[in-house]
Amino acid sequence: MDPTLNNPAPTWLLPHSTAPERERSYLTVQQVGKTYATRNGDVHAVERADFDIDEGDFVSLVGPSGCGKSTLMSMIGGLELPSAGRIAVDGHAVDGPRRDFGYVFQDATLLPWKSVMDNVLFPIRTQKRVLADHRPEAERLLKLTGLWDFRDKRPAELSGGMRQRVAICRGLANDPRLLLMDEPFSALDAITRDDMNLMLAQLWDQVHKTAVFITHSIREAVFLSDRVLVMNARPSRIVADIRVPFERPRRAQMQEHPLFNEICAFVREKIHEGHDSRRPGNR
Amino acid sequence: MNGAGPLQRIGLPLAFAVGTLVLWEIVVRAFGIREVLLPTPSAIAQRLVETFPLLMQHAWPTVWESVAGFAIASLLGVALAALLSASGLMRSMLYPNVVLFQLIPKIALAPLFIVWLGIGFQSRLTFSVFISFFPVVIAALAGLDHVDRSLLRLCRALTASSWQVFVSVRLPHALPYVFSGMKIATTFAIIGVIVGEFITSQAGLGYLILFASSQADTSLILAAITVLCVFGLGFYGIVALLERWTRHAFGA
Questions:
Q1: What is the H or E stretch that residue A182 is in?
Q2: What is the CATH number of domain A3-14+21-100+177-278?
Q3: Which CATH number is B37-250's, of 1.10.1740.10, 1.10.3720.10, 2.30.30.100, 3.90.79.10?
C-alpha cells in the first residue's frame, strides 16, 4: 500500500525541515493554526501547519475539500490572521495583504465593465503605481497567455478559461515576488483545465516566480509544482512534503512518465490514509 | 422578449390603445354623453390645439420643478446611500427610519411643506425631492451592497482604500440599480409637483387642471393631462434609455 513502507523513502520525499534552515527561507509558516468560533463550538480549520517556501519555488498545497488549504492560503496572503503561530516573509510577520504579493482566486473576479487590459492593470492603478512602468509587462503577459487579441474585450465576451487567464495576468501584473493562487481552475471543465495547466506550466518557463498554488487535483499539483505539500482534513495538517524531480520546461508527456504516476499514487495514498483512519464511524 | 415579434410587441398595444380611443369616441357620440362629463378624444384634441400656448405656458413650471426635484433627489439619494453603505453606525441608525418613512403615505405631508416653505416653488420643489428621493436611496443602497464579495476580497488583497473601492467597484456596480430607482423617481417627482400645485399655486399644469375643473372645462382638464402624460413619458423614456446604457456599460 504505502510505497514507503517496504522500500527506503524515495529521494523525492523531503524530511521535515529543521530549525537552522528556517532562517534562510523566503516564506516561513511556523506552527500556524486557525480556529473559528461557531455556534457549535470551535472549528479548527488549520492545525499546526509548519513549512518553509524558498524563493523561486512553485509550491502546491493539495488536499481534500475542507482540509483548510484555502484558509492557509488566506493567512499566507495576509487576508486572514492566524489564531496561533506565525507567518513571515524575509523574517517579517505577514500582518495584512502585501503589495509585493499577487492574488488569484477561485473565481476570476474581474470587473465586468472594464476591458481585459484594464482588468490586468487594475492592481497597478489601485496601488498607485506608475502605469508606464507596468504596461509593457501587462502586454507581455497577455501575449504569453494568448489574450493579446482579446485585450479590448469585456469579461462577459470571454470563456471561463480565458477569464481565469486574465486573472492570472492581473495577479502577475505588479511583478509580485509571490503569486498566490487559490484553486484557480476548479470551476473549469476537465478539458479546459488540462489546457490551463499546460498554459500555466509554459507561462512559468517565462516568469519564474515563487508561487503557492492551492488545488484538490493531485495530477495538477504534481504536474505544475516544484514542490507539493500534501494536506489532510481533521485534523488539518501537512502529511507529506514532495520535491517533484522533473526539470522545467514541463511538457504534457510528463504525465505519462512512470515516476509521475508513482508520485501521484503516493499523494493519493497519503490523502486517503488520513481520511479513512479519521472517519471510523462513516458509512 | 417572450418570443413575440415586433408587430406583436409594438403593434398590438398600439392597436389596443387606438381601439380604446375609437370605442370611447363612438360610445360618447352614440349615447349623447355631455362634454362636461366626458368629452370625446377628438374634442380633447381640438381643445389641446386651441389652448396649446396656454398649456405650454403652464407646462413650463411643472416641467422644470419636476426635473430639478428629480435631479436633486437623485444626487441626495445616491449620497445618502453611499453614507449608509460606508458607515455601519449610520446604517444602523438611519436605514430602519428610511424604510419606515418609505411606508408613510407621503402625499399626506404635502400641506406641511406649504406651511414650512410658503406658496412659492420652494415648497413644491422640496416636496418633489422628498417623495422621489426614497426609491433612489433604496435602489442605490441595494446596488452598493450587492457587490460580489470576491471582488471586495480582491480589493482588500490589493490594499485598496475604501474610497478606491467605492469609486472603482461599488459605484460602477450600483449605477444600473441607481438608474432603475431613478426611473421610479421620475414619476414620483412629477406627482410631488402636481400635488403641490393642487394645494397652492398660480401656475403649472396642476393649477390649470384645478382651474379648468372649477370652470367645468373637462376638455381642458384632459388636454392638460395629455400634456402631462407626454411629458412623463418623455422624462421616463430618457431615464430608461440612460438605464439601458448603464446596464450595457456597467452591468455584469
A1: strand A178-182
A2: 3.40.50.300
A3: 1.10.3720.10
Tell me the HSE value of B182 on the side-chain side, using a 13 A CA sphere: 31
Q: What is the DSSP string of B96-159?
A: HHHHHHHHS-GGGGHHHHHHHH-SSHHHHHHHHHHHHHHHHHHHHHHHHH-S-HHHHHHHHHTT
CB contact under 8 A, A97 and B158: yes
Total-model pTM: 0.83
B146 touches chain A (CB under 8 A): no
Query: How close A251 gets to chain B, by Cα (Å)?
Result: 32
Q: pLDDT tens digit string along B94-151?
A: 999 988 888 889 889 999 998 999 888 999 999 999 999 999 999 999 999 999 899 9
Give me the sign of the Cα torsion angle A240, A243, A248, A254: negative
Place of cell 407621503: B106
What single DSSP character describes residue A13?
B
| pLDDT of amino acid A280 | 45
Which of these, A128, A127, A124, lies nearest to A137 by C-alpha position?
A: A124
Q: Which residue has the cell 449610520?
A: B90
